[in-house]
Amino acid sequence: MPDRSSHRALPAHTHPEDVPVETALAALADPVRLQLVRELAAAADWSHSCGSFQVPVGKAALSHHFTVLRAAGLVEQRDRGPKRLNRLRREEFDTRFPGLLGLVLREEG
């Protein structure tokens, strides 16, 4: 019998065109999700696995945050071996909500 423990279904991805502005704003309003988006914005596509982020939450909460970001059309994920890699859907999101990511990614100060 094959070992299925290493096979996970890829999550459903929502295209930014299908996202209401309220969903996008709610996803970006959470400090942990904003930190995830900022880290992804500063990195090359597909260079961050889910476990590589420096956030103050456990694995289950981190999974929830990624679910919210996917549902808001902000993040795309793919599995590579045992890791789930991420990319910020910057171009697609900027087309749907011009300037929004630019505003929220600005450093405070």
UniProtKB/TrEMBL annotation:
InterPro entries: ArsR-like_HTH, HTH_ArsR_DNA-bd_dom, HTH_MetalResp_TranReg, WH-like_DNA-bd_sf, WH_DNA-bd_sf
GO molecular function, one term: DNA-binding transcription factor activity
SUPFAM superfamilies the UniProt entry points to: Winged helix' DNA-binding domain (SSF46785)
Domain HTH arsR-type stretches: 13-108
Xref: PROSITE patterns: HTH_ARSR_2 (PS50987)
CDD domains per record: HTH_ARSR (cd00090)
This protein's UniProt keywords: DNA-binding, Transcription, Transcription regulation
UniProt key word Transcription regulation: yes
Name of the molecule in the record: Transcriptional regulator
Highest classification ranks of the organism: Bacteria, Bacillati, Actinomycetota, Actinomycetes, Kitasatosporales
